[in-house]
Known about the structure:
Elements: E1 8-13, E2 41-42, E3 51-57, H1 60-67, E4 75-82, H2 87-95, E5 98-99, E6 102-103, E7 108-112, E8 132-139, H3 146-153, E9 158-166, E10 169-170, E11 179-181, H4 184-192
Parallel strand pairs: 3-9
Antiparallel strand pairs: 1-3, 1-11, 2-3, 4-8, 4-9, 5-6, 7-8, 9-10
Amino acid sequence: MMRNTLYYFAINKPYGMLSQFTDANNRKTLSELFNFPKDVYPIGRLDMDSEGLLLLTNDKRLTDHLLNPRNKLEKEYYVQVEGIPTQSAIQQLIDGLVIEGKKTLPAKAKLIEAPNFPERNPPIRERKNIPTSWISLTITEGRNRQVRKMTAAVGFPTLRLVRVRIKNILLDNLKPGEVRELSKNEVEMIKLYQKI
Length: 196
């Protein structure tokens, strides 16, 4: 029996697009970006109002491995927040905080310079008298809208959320809506994390 070809893609999901291929309400979906092979699906998801790196594959073993919470897959986000977080707010993000009755796992968090991203379409709503800043936040869980809930819990609501890394795969210079196939080397690197 012939093995099916395995495909691995990285995309930069634009703002306002669903992390799926069809939608009964005619909202924007991934099918608008590229003619993906029919058995390829996203590994996990990004909310409609989040942007950035999304991986797609038809490698079911890899998908199961990456989505298994026991494997603590690192996902890094660049988060534009309202206000300038204090060191104590950053420390709370690092230590973990209680959201909906359950404490988040320890994370990595730090203030960063504003990244060189294309302007969001539509742009974020900024308030004249309130500055904004950017945080790099790396988490190993995938709770619903977790990053937004974490920054809100420490008093700095998220304005813009862009995923820039999943494990060793980087968003890099991929523009919103662009798709690329992962290199053989990148695929091997992800698979190194699998306990085969």
